[in-house]
Design brief:
With 193 residues, the chain is mainly alpha-helical. It has a single domain, classed as Ferritin (Up-down Bundle), CATH 1.20.1260.10. The protein contains seven helices and no strands. The longest helix is centred in the middle third of the chain and has 29 residues. The chain starts with 11 loop residues before the first helix and ends in an 11-residue tail after the last helix.
Length: 193
């Protein structure tokens, strides 16, 4: 359903289980960055009223998820750690060339966001099915549904604001590139890396 070309190695869950505090911290910042992405789309494209409306709701939802993850951290007797660089996102963002029209820039931002949400959804599914911590298993099962909805929403907007055939080709090319990145990732206690 997500279209990802390379699934996460299930052994990634073993790394996560040994580093629950680290994965929760990384996850919290991922939610915060997702809210920031929604806000940046509002700031960058205020004339796109439908997008602004959806991004406003998304920013609220993502900060709600941040709060839920933060509560899990606090309830386990920990504090939110420092933000880390997201190697996955840094490498992913190198795919599309810089420059171009505002519309092209918008489509690229939307495709990046769709892919990040798709990978998050896939990781949440894996955690919900494989992690031994029952509380986190249920937590990630519930979040998985939201991420799937976000992925499809970003892709829908990319197709709306770009030429569908061109957007679909860019999407497939981005999926291929992401699969090549994933060959070297999945060995750390991070949500994407």
């Amino acid at each position: 359903m997500l279209g990802l070309k390379l699934p996460t190695d299930p052994r990634w869950v073993n790394i996560v289980e040994k580093n629950i505090e680290e994965i929760l911290t990384d996850h919290a910042y991922c939610e915060q960055k997702a809210a920031s992405t929604a806000i940046s789309l509002i700031i960058g494209f205020p004339e796109k009223s439908e997008l602004v409306k959806e991004m406003t709701a998304l920013a609220r939802e993502e900060m709600g998820h941040f709060n839920m993850v933060h509560d899990k951290i606090i309830n386990r007797g920990w504090v939110l750690g420092r933000e880390r660089k997201d190697e996955y996102v840094i490498e992913l963002m190198k795919f599309f060339p810089k420059g171009g029209s505002r519309e092209t820039h918008l489509v690229h931002k939307l495709l990046y966001a769709a892919l990040i949400e798709a990978r998050s959804c896939e990781r949440f599914r894996l955690l919900s099915e494989e992690i031994q911590d029952e509380e986190l298993s249920e937590f990630y099962r519930n979040l998985m549904v939201s991420e799937a909805n976000h992925y499809t929403m970003f892709l829908k907007f990319a197709r709306k604001y770009g030429h569908k055939e061109e957007v679909d080709q860019k999407w497939q090319d981005l999926l291929d590139y992401e699969a090549s990145l994933m060959k070297d990732l999945g060995k750390k206690e991070t949500m994407h890396g």
